[in-house]
TrEMBL record:
PROSITE patterns assigned to the protein according to its UniProt record, in alphabetical order: CATALASE_1 (PS00437), CATALASE_2 (PS00438), CATALASE_3 (PS51402)
Protein name, UniProt field: Catalase
Protein family according to the UniProt entry: Belongs to the catalase family. HPII subfamily.
Residues forming the catalytic site: H69, N142
Residue ranges of every copy of the Catalase core domain listed in the record: 22-410
InterPro entries: Catalase, Catalase_AS, Catalase_clade2, Catalase_clade2_helical, Catalase_core, Catalase_haem_BS, Catalase_immune_responsive, Catalase_large_C
Functional description taken from the UniProt entry: Decomposes hydrogen peroxide into water and oxygen; serves to protect cells from the toxic effects of hydrogen peroxide.
PANTHER family linked: CATALASE, CATALASE-B
Any one of the GO CC terms: cytosol
Obligatory cofactor(s): heme
EC identifiers of the protein: 1.11.1.6
Keywords attached to this entry: Heme, Hydrogen peroxide, Iron, Metal-binding, Oxidoreductase, Peroxidase
Length: 663
């Protein structure tokens, strides 16, 4: 950084130093960390004008693309219920084995704009709209089960920190910069979330191979009024898989649309993504029986303590017809619920209940976004709301108010016994305060639990990710703060990070005291081994022998095959899909070499293909051994000769025992 730039930054600091924090009306603010609640664990109060002003301003900052989750793609599908779940909820779409409900799912990244790349390190959105007979139900979650903050009032600050820095609009769709890590170091409730963010979970191989979580704590209520606290899970049938970081970066350059293309093409080919819906349940009376607060959105409920009950399966079987009309105009809201699903006092959830509708008002031009075809419920809807931007319903008659005799109170409220929505009757008692429950104060125990639960290769990847991210931070003092924060999680982790990013080892190496583990958080302890829908490149030319014998056993295992050669031609009646200039090995899950080349340039390109695949730990079949690549040979882990052996290697996926690989 130049001296002039440093002087400018110091001047910016001086301009804002010692200034009082106020509302937009000039009112001095005494507290900016906590929303106004009834008691420290109670619901957020609507009269909190500071929270509403801050969140409203944030929600309306950008038009027309979403402030967050701008980069997305979507598909239609069907949810099928596995069982009658009426013992835990009266929601009708979960009331009968085999019952089917139409759904629409939007996957997304959080930080980048609509034009950013798919494969950046980021949280992924996983939002599902159920078009039920009782109205639309929106399950709006992420691919990571926790979040960066405990109270929604801090969400605008966090997004401001992770978005491109305002003085130069750099960097795009990245968290590897000063303001993000300065936020993390100074808001250490983010410690657990940042561990997930640095893990391989943040660079998924495909939307089809990504877990989804509801994040917040909700309630299920059955017909008898019995309530359970509930957390939602989407479990992909293909298992959870990721890129390695070097690979993810290269894919961003070779095909920035990789994830949306992958989803679209697989649905078109009939490889319909499937996810099972599961729930974790805690009876109302067991709310305080755990060593963490179940309302804290920076905490998971370890699956070993609170098992996941699987309720049904979602199949995505149809692509959108029009990206703008459907994917861009779909409006999700955590407050769109049906009878049997209710809310908790999770302070992040309480803020989301306000923010989502407020955001749609500016994005979609007014209060009638529910009338857009993609948002319209499949059941009839009637009320006395009228007019406004985008109104499509043509209401007739003189009545637009409730309590009337002209239409005999039509439309009329419906009793709960006949399907009307009734909120769970929770007793709330407490002083109006801006504070957080003391049970939310432990920020590091679950972060350490996450670290202890990872395999050695996952830990290695996390350290590399942290070193890359923090190494991009220009200010050494911020790097040092981050290292000190990580020392509360694990001293060795913090020390290795300090060495890699050029700051002092942590002064405090005393991590939080816990030896608790949750193997369910690891991607690699219990992997799903499969070849289904994986994509393989076969390098071919005129020297290739009996191509059909290579392809047929692959297709029998539901493996997608693309032919790659020196030019687009026809080989044994099959059209070559790509040349080595129009594709790249990072776009495939494995490589089969079935050709030799005489031209030295082509030999070099083939060697690059082989080396890149090897460095990213993917399987390789050398049906024809290249003569100029001695570093990769049959006998290395995952490097085989026969197609049968290659299929088994592909089933495993990554082959980590490659000491010379540099991925």
């Amino acid at each position: 950084m130049t001296n002039k730039k440093l002087q400018q930054l110091e001047q910016y600091k001086a301009d804002d130093r010692n200034k009082a924090l106020t509302t937009n009306q000039g009112l001095k603010v005494s507290e900016d960390e906590h929303s106004l609640k009834v008691g420290s664990r109670g619901p957020t109060i609507m009269e909190d004008f500071h929270f509403r002003e801050k969140m409203t301003h944030f929600d309306h900052e950008r038009i027309p693309e979403r402030v967050v989750h701008a980069r997305g793609t979507a598909a239609h599908g069907i949810f099928e219920c596995y069982e009658d779940a009426s013992d835990i909820t009266k929601a009708k779409f979960l009331s009968e084995k085999g019952k089917q409900t139409p759904v629409f799912v939007r996957f997304s990244t959080v930080a980048g704009s609509r034009g950013s790349s798919d494969t950046v390190r980021d949280v992924r959105g996983f939002a599902t709209k159920f078009y039920t007979e009782e109205g639309n139900y929106d399950l709006v979650g992420n691919n990571i089960p926790v979040f960066f903050m405990q109270d929604a009032i801090k969400f605008p600050d966090f997004i401001h920190a992770v978005k491109p820095e305002p003085h130069n609009e750099i960097p795009q769709a990245q968290s590897a910069h000063d303001t993000f890590w300065d936020y993390i170091a100074n808001n250490q409730e983010s410690a657990h979330m940042i561990m997930w963010h640095l893990s391989d979970r943040a660079i998924p191989r495909s939307y089809r191979m990504m877990e989804g979580f509801g994040v917040n704590t909700f309630r299920f209520v059955n017909a008898a009024g019995k309530a359970h606290f509930v957390k939602f899970h989407w479990k992909p049938k293909l298992g959870v898989h990721s890129f390695v970081w070097d690979e993810a970066q290269k894919v961003a350059g070779k095909d920035p649309d990789f994830h949306r293309r992958d989803l679209y093409e697989n649905i078109e080919q009939g490889n319909f993504p499937e996810f099972e819906l599961g729930v974790q349940l805690i009876p109302q009376e067991d709310e305080f029986k755990f060593d963490f607060d179940i309302l804290d959105p920076t905490k998971i409920w370890p699956e070993e303590e609170v098992p996941v009950r699987i309720l049904g399966k979602m199949t995505l079987n149809r692509n959108v017809d029009n990206f703008f009309a459907e994917t861009e105009q779909v409006a999700f809201h955590v407050g769109h619920v049906v009878p049997g699903i209710d809310f908790s006092n999770d302070p992040l959830l309480q803020g989301r209940l306000f923010s989502y509708t407020d955001t749609q008002l500016i994005r979609l031009g007014g209060p009638n976004f529910h009338e857009l075809p993609i948002n319209r419920p499949v059941c009839p809807f009637h009320n006395n709301q009228r007019d406004g931007y985008g109104r499509q319903t043509i209401n007739v008659g003189p009545v637009s108010y409730h309590k009337n005799s002209i239409h005999q109170n039509t439309p009329a409220p419906v009793p709960a016994s006949e399907g009307g929505y009734e909120h769970y009757q929770e007793k709330v008692d407490g002083m109006k305060v801006r504070e957080r429950s003391k049970s939310f104060e432990d920020h590091f125990s679950q972060a350490r639990m996450f670290w202890l639960s990872l395999t050695d290769i996952e830990k290695e990847h996390l350290i590399k990710a942290a070193s890359f991210e923090v190494g991009k931070v220009m200010r050494l003092e911020v790097r040092q703060q981050v290292v000190e924060m990580f020392s509360h999680i694990d001293g060795n982790l913090a020390t290795q990070l300090a060495m890699n990013v050029g700051v002092q080892p942590p002064t405090n190496k005393q991590h939080v005291e816990t030896d608790k583990v949750s193997p369910a958080v690891s991607m690699y302890i219990n992997p799903v081994l499969s070849t289904e829908t994986k994509k393989v490149a076969i390098v071919v030319n005129e020297t290739t022998e009996d191509l059909a014998k290579i392809i047929e056993p692959l297709k029998a295992e539901k493996i997608t095959v693309e032919l790659v050669s020196d030019r687009q031609q026809t080989i044994q009646g099959l059209v070559v899909d790509h040349t080595m200039d129009t594709t790249h090995p990072v776009l495939y899950d494995g490589l089969i070499v079935a050709a030799k080349f005489d031209d030295q340039k082509m030999k070099n390109k083939l060697n690059e293909f082989i080396t890149e695949t090897f460095n990213h730990y993917k399987p390789i079949s050398l049906l024809v051994a290249p003569t100029t690549n001695p570093t990769v040979k049959v006998g290395d882990e995952g490097v085989v000769q026969t197609i049968e052996s290659f299929i088994e290697a592909l089933r495993i996926g990554r082959h980590w025992n490659r000491p010379t690989a540099i991925g």
